[in-house]
Write a structure and sequence with these properties.
The protein has three helices and ten strands; from the N terminus they run E-E-E-E-H-E-E-E-E-E-E-H-H. By secondary structure, it is α+β, with helices and mostly antiparallel strands. It has a single domain, classed as FomD-like (FomD barrel-like fold, Beta Barrel). The strands form two sheets. It has a seven-stranded mixed beta barrel with strand order 1-2-3-6-7-8-9. InterPro entries: DUF402 (IPR007295), FomD-like_sf (IPR035930).
């Protein structure tokens, strides 16, 4: 068990590490539970984060696929938008599961973010984003997301072929759980509502 363990109510920062060891995005999470091996945290809509853009100012999606993983990136101040997320982050797993909630609090779907685990620091978990993901829709099964990006990332040297194989295997494992309606896709936390008295999780000063 790790020596870094966080209490409910604390803020930790999930960092997304690049393959060269540099740090990309920073996402602050309010801790709901942590047993020293699996963290459950909350990132509400509108929370300031540190995001990534290409060094020339374009967003990642603005770049053609053949450039997206070859151009240098820089960190930029950003806001978490679209949905609020509840995140289950097991230290050793090659994925984390995100519950997506609409602005009105309604649960939308699950997002399986495939990742390479990089352990914990004093301030939070470190992960390498695996590019390839799954979307699990209640009552409608699951599907891969960003398969073309994952292949482009391998071609660019952003991921190795072996890593992508392991990420795919993890995706198949999680997809099988979703097909059975097994945890974490069994309805657990879909009725989650944050304490209205909680302040939004905040980033440490001076990151960007």
């Amino acid at each position: 068990m790790t020596e870094h363990r966080w209490a409910p109510g604390q803020t930790v920062v999930e960092r997304f590490v690049r393959p060269d060891g540099s740090i990309g995005q920073h996402h602050p999470l309010r801790v709901l539970s942590d047993d020293g091996e699996t963290l459950l945290g909350w990132l509400p809509l509108g929370t300031p984060i540190v995001g990534s853009r290409l060094a020339d100012g374009r967003s990642l999606r603005e770049a053609p696929l053949e450039q997206r993983f070859r151009e240098p990136r820089v960190r930029v101040p950003d806001i978490w938008h679209g949905t609020s997320t509840l995140r289950l982050i097991p230290d050793r797993a090659w994925s984390s599961v995100w519950w997506f909630f609409e602005a009105d609090g309604r649960f939308r779907d699950w997002y399986v973010n495939l990742e390479v685990p990089r352990g914990r620091t004093e301030t939070g978990p470190d992960r390498i984003d695996g590019i390839l993901d799954l979307v699990v829709t209640p009552g409608a099964g699951w599907q891969w997301k960003d398969e073309d990006e994952a292949e482009a990332a391998v071609e660019a040297g952003r991921l190795t072929a072996a890593e992508l194989d392991k990420l795919r295997a993890e995706g198949e494992r999680m997809g099988a759980l979703a097909e059975r309606g097994a945890y974490p896709f069994d309805g657990t936390h879909t009725d989650f509502r944050p304490d209205p008295g909680w302040p939004a999780p905040a980033l440490p000063a001076g990151l960007c």
